[in-house]
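ok so i was messing around last nite and threw this chain in just to see what happens. nothing serious, just curious
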Amino acid sequence: MMRSMFSGVAGMKNFQYSIDVVGNNIANVNTVGFKGSRVTFQTALLQTMKAARSPQNNIGGTNPIQIGLGSQLATVDKIMTQGSFENTGNGTDLAIEGDGFFVLSNGSQYYYTRAGAMTVDSNGTLIQSSTGLKVQGWSAIQDPTTGIRYVDTNRPIGDITISAGMTMPANATTNATIAGNLNSRVGPIPFSMTVTDTTNNTDYTVRFVFSRTSADFVRQTDPFSKSQSYTWDLYGEDGKVKAVGFMVLNEFGRVESSGTAYQATASADGRLTNTDFGGNIPSDGIYYTVVKDENGQIIYEGNVNITGSNFTIPDIVNGGRYFVIFGNASAGDEVTLGGDATISIPTAGEARFYESDNPSNFSTLQYESPKYVTAVQMYDSLGNPYSVYLEFTRIGQFGNMQNAWLWRAYTASGEPISYVDANGQTTVGINNYVGGIVNFNESGRISGMYGITWDGTTLNVSNTELRTIEFDAAHMGDSTVKATIDFTSLTQFSGSNSAAFTYQNGNALGTLQSFAINENGEIIGTFSNGLTDILGQIALAVFNNPSGLTEIGNSLYVVSANSGLAQIGTAGSGGRGTLIPGALEMSNVDLAEEFTKMIIAQRGFQANARVITTADTILGELVALRR
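result:
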């Protein structure tokens, strides 16, 4: 009987442990980062009354006869499952989603916790609010030359300090990126019209197509002029050119001047002379001249000197039909296609092309300015700002380029711009670069970037890539600002202009205004210059056996002999969880489960007590036998 009484006592003790653990779990149901525990039991010693016996001959084996002597406490295990999250709105409150612990220090020892209620003390040190222990991680290192901050996670962890007086030093702009679309449907849009020869009752359908030649830039005196000159070709239904001319349009598409080419059929092999024009040529002088054939190909382009009505244009095929534009000279303002089928070419005002003897039959040139300007703020090494404008001008087909755009840069404060090619040169021969040119392929993507020079008569395109600008900043205390522009993200499709600078790496001086912590534990500061920079990064620790950590109160743990060593790294790496800023992890205690455990412990305790009272009753009956 005494054995059963001691077994009952052991059971009562164990269920007392169980109710103690349940009570602790329920008491911490609202404790931030708390991990509940569970109790397991195991049998105590057993008294063997008879040992087991193996089968022998015709007699089977028998099992051992053992009487248990009660139970004993086996384990009190930490349940390290994820708790739910509570939004707090406080940017320094942090919850860990996944495995890991925050690392805290008192200067001599590391502590580990899931309770992420953090704040900054008067020294700017990131601490745990409840204990004052300092949060461990890596403070950003600032390059003394560039001022760029970076976090070296290969260094030992330490305190994280965020000073209210932190500054971001000024940096000169050295790189910029422009992206977006340049509208391919700008400038004069090709159009067709039909005119009638009433004498022969014949219709002529023709098409006007506009392109650019070097002569156009000579006519407008500046490649970047507001008024743009275009060479037009008039194609017939047979695909041959019937007439050629030029037209200078202002930014609103109104005609400032125009002219038609002289036509001639070469009579002498290898050249055109005054006799081929029947004497109908402009007055003496030097003219920048363009010669086209019936296929619209440029045969000759350059200066022609007319002296005493005499001149020679080389590279001509005997018997070929040619169209020649001598500078601004014009052979007239009408084009005759046959009989009385004549088209009048506008010479001023609205760009309206009409049938000469039927003005109601007309086509008005659709024109949108080929210019587009975007701007970016660049900085010198002292943080002085400069508004830099990038102006694009579509020239379309030019030379062997199909979709070319000129570009140039200028500043709002008027600093002269120099252009530097990939070889570090600002000139080609004796001529300075005056800008650049970008060419797009038929897929709307950039296929080439080159420099351009202008000597007043010829627009030359270099063979060297050019995308770097430079300007003097000495009057503001610096020397020069030199920035390379990345054009590769530009496109050219038929759509609205959207090209804009998306990046430049310069900045003015900035003072820290606020900071935030992201999911990787990076502390990102926002400065008064509108930029952000990394200030540090919070460390997390994981363990091979986190349940083996020793809890010391204040929601803190320390390493034990069976937890394994702390493996410290960044959030989101090496099996570590990520952080949720502005939230705290709640306790993982399930009240319904704890109440159930409470009932089980209570009933277990009652049953073991009943064993003791029952055994006592039996013993009483035994004592009563002596009567």
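not much to say yet. Residues 187-368 form one domain.
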